[in-house]
Amino acid sequence: MRFALPALALAALAVPALATEPQDKESDKKAEAQPEAAPAKEEKICRRIRTDISSRRKEKVCMTREEWVDFNNGN
């Protein structure tokens, strides 16, 4: 009798998980066939750099890869 109540509670929690509808294979194929609508955003790269030559303190600066290339070419 001690284990009946916890077993009943677990069974009640498991029923909604089993109630989901199976997915159609055709809908999966349609989803795979569609190209991505928007390209992924470029990832920001963060670095700590000295913004002032006379200061030892570094500041966190985040830019894209292209922006870092332009930044490094300017220095």
Any overview of this molecule?
With 75 residues, this protein is α+β, with helices and mostly antiparallel strands. The protein has a domain at 43-75. Helices cover 45% and strands 13% of the residues. It contains three helices and two strands; from the N terminus they run H-H-E-E-H. The protein has a two-stranded antiparallel ribbon. The mean pLDDT is 74.
Q: Could you give a short description of this structure?
A:
This protein has three helices and two strands. With 75 residues, the protein is of the alpha+beta class. It has a domain at 43-75.
Helix share of residues?
Answer: 40-55%
Count of extended strands: 2
The arrangement of helices and strands along the chain is HHEEH
Residue fraction in strands: 5-15%
Output the strand order for the largest sheet.
Answer: 1-2
The coarse overall form would be elongated
Rg for CA atoms = 28 Å
Mean pLDDT: 74
Parts with pLDDT < 50 across at least 5 consecutive residues:
none
Instruction: State the major sheet.
Output: 2 strands, antiparallel
Instruction: Please give the count of helices.
Output: 3
The CA-CA distance between the termini, in Å, is 77 Å
The secondary-structure class comes to alpha+beta
Topology (SSEs and partners):
Layout: H1 4-18, H2 25-33, E1 45-49, E2 59-63, H3 65-74
Describe this protein with a few key phrases.
3 helices, alpha+beta, 45% helix, 75 residues, two-stranded antiparallel sheet
